[in-house]
Amino acid sequence: MNGIAIIDKPAGLTSYDVVARVRRILCERRVGHTGTLDPFATGVLVVLVGRATRLAQFLAGADKEYQALVRFGYATDTGDVTGEPRSTNRVNKMVWSDEQIEAALGSLRGRINQVPPMYSAKKIRGQKLYELARRGVEVERAPVSVVVHEIEPVRRAQQQGSLLHPNGDGTCDLAVRVVCSAGTYVRVLAESIGEKLGADAHLAALRRTRAGAFRVEDAVSLDRLQAMADEGRQTKLLLPLDAALSEMPFVHLSEQDAKRTRHGAVIYLDGAAVKWGDACHVQMRNEHGRLIAIGVYSSTNGQLHPRILLDPEEE
Q1: Strand bridging mode 110-114 / 144-153
Q2: Distance, CA of 300 to CA of 185 (rounded, Å)
Q3: I need a surface site. Which of 139, 168, 254, 312 has the fewest CB within 10 A?
Q4: How many structural domains is the chain composed of?
Q5: How many CB atoms lie within 10 A of CB 135?
């Protein structure tokens, strides 16, 4: 069983929990994902099944889109709703105009530096930061460059025209839409928005609505996947391997070259007819259009080297 499952991750499960569930449902040992979501977050988790796990490197760096809820009034030790309050600065009245909020968000667009939070899966000297944090250890973290392509407020119907929604406990919420590069910490963005507005803040809710080309509208729940598996129709929910490679160029091989590719042999192309750059990754398809490998092209000698075999056996 080979393919890509777009799962709508529920709150309360880790990304590893989702992978474990998919593994059991599909009875397939080789299952992985391409971008961690925190347990409290929901939305798109791209799960690779079977030989699709070999494509993880081409998906991990894809841009992401989120719907986030920033809560002003207090910060937490994790930067999100799961943490313990570490400071309190209740917002008793709406002190920011729409223009001030827009300006705060606008200052975070583009390339920015973020310090990875202690409660994150990032490793320093072989140890995950959250493991150190749970032991009460805090270490220095170097800033990481990320890109915020889009960040804008979302006006919700119940807010009666205001961007801010007051809560009964003296806090208030701001809904935002974010499109960002891989590796961006949205909870750090939430804290930064608070800093720009002069208030303590944390991330109260997060939903990933897109990962690369995969959107939440196309995602399925784990319960739906289980129901389809119970009916023996689980493969209908799996996308083909090449669904992950829409931006990658491809070449159709002759029957003989397809056989050579399946054995890892180099394929020679007409360099004059090829416009790919050196070391470009290329989809290698057989004469029927089936993806059988990912190759790396050498512009100096017109060679296409199979690097990742996806269909090693004869059909």
Answers
A1: antiparallel
A2: 40
A3: 168
A4: 3
A5: 9
pTM here is: 0.89
pLDDT digits (tens, 9 = 90+) for 120-135: 777 777 777 777 778 7
CB atoms near residue 63 (< 10 Å): 16
Q: Active site residue: 38, 173, 200, 311, which one?
A: 38
Structural domain range at position 17 = 3-60+214-243
Torsion of CA 83, 88, 92, 97, to 10 degrees: -80
- Strands 144-153 and 164-166, sheet pairing: unpaired
**In degrees rounded to 5, what are phi and psi of residue 245?**
-125, 30
**38 tagged catalytic:** yes
* pLDDT bracket for residue 205 (50, 70, 90): very high
Which residues fall within 8 angstroms of residue 50, CB to CB, at 6 or more apart? 1, 2, 3, 28, 30
Q: Do strands 42-49 and 144-153 pair parallel, antiparallel, or not at all (unpaired)? A: unpaired
153, 176 contact by CB (below 8 A): yes
The CATH number for 18's domain is 3.30.2350.10
Q: How far apart are CA 76 and CA 202, in angstroms?
A: 6
Same domain, residue pair 172 and 254: no
What CATH number is given to the structural domain containing 283? 2.30.130.10
Residue 315 pLDDT > 90: no
Rg (CA), the chain: 23
Closest CA to 197 of 73, 84, 111: 73
Residues 161 and 115 both lie in one domain: yes
